Automatic annotation (TrEMBL):
Name of the protein described by the UniProt record: Malonic semialdehyde reductase
Enzyme Commission numbers on file: 1.1.1.298
One protein family per Pfam: Nitroreductase
Record keywords, A-Z: Oxidoreductase
Domain of life: Bacteria
EC top class, as a word: oxidoreductase
Record field: transmembrane: none
Oxidoreductase in keyword set: yes
Domain Nitroreductase: 31-188
UniProt lineage: Bacteria, Bacillati, Actinomycetota, Actinomycetes, Micrococcales
Molecular function GO labels: 3-hydroxypropionate dehydrogenase (NADP+) activity
UniProt entry tagged with the keyword Isomerase: no
InterPro entries named in the record: Nitroreductase, Nitroreductase-like, Nitroreductase_HadB/RutE
Length: 212
């Protein structure tokens, strides 16, 4: 694969300084919303695969790519997951067409021969389990952001939530995998205007940054 390094300099940037059209910026960020209720329209494996094909290219530390996705579809698995969620989120998990448990793979180092071929004996660099878990969580949380944007890019909507009792989720649904649950993301098609809250304000750059 060839990477063009001069692409951005060749673009005719819109007036607002974006390298993409305003419709794309709206789809991915400005008009996209956290969705609380969904229609019963199925989310296909092909749609999930299309989103993953985008998110997997986002950067992670040392290209560890530790995000793992548990796709919760069956009523039995949905009920098991809901039992470990905060009470206010249980009905959302039970009703969404697809719920994804986003997890960090603490055994990510087993794939480094493929993912980081430039690092000699990369697997041996991570003998400490606590260090692996910390590193996996950091990069996987970054990848959750990619996941949400990627879902929007393929025409889906997301409702990210805290995972509740993560230890219980890990024991019940992820036993033996080395995965550690981070959060839960409901996925589907919005049920209508009532499926989102009114748009809340955001901080300006001056409020959210410092220059040194």
């Amino acid at each position: 694969m060839t990477t063009r390094t001069d692409t951005l300099s060749d673009l005719d940037f819109p007036a607002d300084g974006l390298a993409v059209g305003p419709d794309v910026a709206d789809l991915l960020f400005r008009e996209a919303r956290t969705v609380n209720t969904f229609t019963d329209t199925d989310v296909s494996d092909e749609q999930v695969r299309a989103a993953y094909e985008l998110l997997r290219w986002g950067p992670t530390a040392m290209n560890t790519v530790p995000l793992r996705l548990l796709l919760v579809r069956t009523p039995e698995a949905r009920a098991r997951l809901a039992a470990h969620m905060p009470e206010g989120n249980r009905s959302r998990v039970l009703a969404a067409p697809l719920t994804i448990v986003a997890a960090a793979d603490t055994n990510f180092h087993e794939h480094l021969d493929v993912l980081a071929p430039h690092l000699e004996n990369a697997r041996a660099m991570f003998p400490d389990a606590a260090m692996r878990e910390s590193m996996a969580r950091m990069s996987a949380l970054i990848q959750v952001g990619y996941l949400i944007v990627a879902l929007r890019a393929v025409g889906l909507h997301a409702g990210p939530m805290g995972a509740g009792d993560t230890d219980a989720i890990d024991a019940d649904l992820l036993a033996g995998t080395g995965w550690k649950s981070l959060m839960v993301v409901n996925v589907g098609t919005p049920a209508g205007p009532e499926s989102v809250r009114p748009r809340a304000p955001r901080l300006e750059l001056a409020q959210a940054s410092l220059s040194v």
